[in-house]
Write the C-alpha cells for this entry.
Amino acid sequence: MKSFSTGLICRECGATYPADARYSCDFCFGPLEVSYDLEAAKAHLTRESIEAGPASIWRYGALLPDPGETPVDLGAGWTPLRRADRLAKVLGVRELWLKDDTRNPTGSFKDRVVSCALSSARRLGFTTAACASTGNLATSVAAHAAFIGWPSVTIIPADLEKSKIAMAAIFGGIVLGVEGNYDDVNRLCVELVAEHPDWAFANVNLRPYYAEGSKTLAFEIVEQLGWRLPDQVVVPLASGSQFTKVAKGFRQFRELGLVEGDQPRLFGAQATGCSPIATAFHAGADVVTPQRPHTIARSLAIGNPADGPYVLDELRQGGGDCGSVSDAEVLECIGLLAETEGVFAETAGGVTIASLRQMVERGTLDRDGSIVAIISGHGLKTLDAVADSATVTHTISPSLESAQAALGFSELVAAS
Ligand SMILES: *Cc1c(COP(=O)(O)O)cnc(C)c1O
Ligand SMILES: [Zn+2]
C-alpha cells in the first residue's frame, strides 16, 4: 500500500517542509518529523489490508515514510510477541509479554529504523550509507548497505565489545573506531554531514525517516495482541527515539480507529551508569543534564540523548516512570530472562527487565495490568558481558564415572 506521508513538520514550531534530506527547522532549529494525511489513510487502511501485507515492517508501509519504488527490506520486523508466564510469576505480575526483537536480520531493533532510513535515502538519490553508532546501528547500516550494494561508513566508539565491532565490520564497509564515547562520535558525525552532504547518515541527516521505523514496534504489539492495546510498555532508552515513536505509533493506530482504548502508559529503562533521562525525570527537571557513560549496557550509552526532553514530556503526561538499574542487576536479569523464557538478550534487555522489576516493586507499574517489555537486542552481541559467569558447570574427564560424580551420582557408581 502506498505511503500516506505528506512531508516533514517541525516538532517545535509546526513549520512544514517537503520530504527531502533535512532534519532541523530553518526557523527554530527544532527537530523535524514525518507527517501523514491520516484522514486519507483512514479511508483506505483496514485491519484486513494490513494483515494481507508482508511479514516485515512494510506491512505498515501506509504509515511509514515513502520508500520510493521498493523498500530496502532485509526482513526487519514482524518479530514474535511471546507471553512470558514463567517470568511473570517470578516478577509478580499478571500478564507479561516479550516483544522479541532479538529476532531481526542483524539481531537488534535497529533493523526497523535502518530499513526506513535507507529506503528514504535511496528514494532521495543517495548512494552511500553512514551513521553514528553505539554498535547495533553500525551493524544494521553496514548489512543493509551490503544488501543493496552501497558503500558504507559507520562510526563507533573504538572500545566497543569485540562482538559488536566484528558484526559491523563483517559486511565489508568502512568502520571508523573513534577514541572517545558515543557523544564524541555523534559530534564528529554532525561535522561530517556538513562535509559530505551526499552521504546518508541514518540517524543524522536522515533522522526523521529513521525514527519512524520504531513506530512499527507499537503497530506489531497491537496487531499481535489481536488488535488490542496493552496497558503498559517498558522501553529501553538510549537517545529516546524508540520511546517517542512507540508512543506515536500507538497514537496513530488509535486515531485511525484501528484499535480502541486508552493510550498505553510508557515506562523507560536505563542503566544507572548512563541514566540522564531517569535522573532528570526523578529530579523533576525539564532539561536533561548530559552524563559521561560508564556501564556494560553499551548500546544504551548515550550521555546526551537527542530526544530526552520529548521522553520526559511523554513520561509525565502519560503517568509513566523510568527505571535506573546497576550493571549487576542487568547481568542478573539477562540470566533470569534466559532461564525463565529461553530468550537470550543483550545488556539492553537486562536493563529492560531489571527496570520493569524495579518499577513493579515501587508500585508505579501496575502488576495487575498487562505489560509488554521490549527486548531490543540479541545476547550474542554482548557475549563478553556474560562470558565469565555463564560457563561450564563442571570440567570432567571423558569417563562415565567422572560424569556421574559431577552430576552427584558418585555413590550409585560406587555401588554398582
Ligand atoms: C539503539 C538501541 C535502543 C534504543 O535506542 P534509541 O536511541 O533510544 O532509539 C535500544 N536497544 C538497543 C539494543 C539498541 O541498540
Ligand atoms: Zn521550527
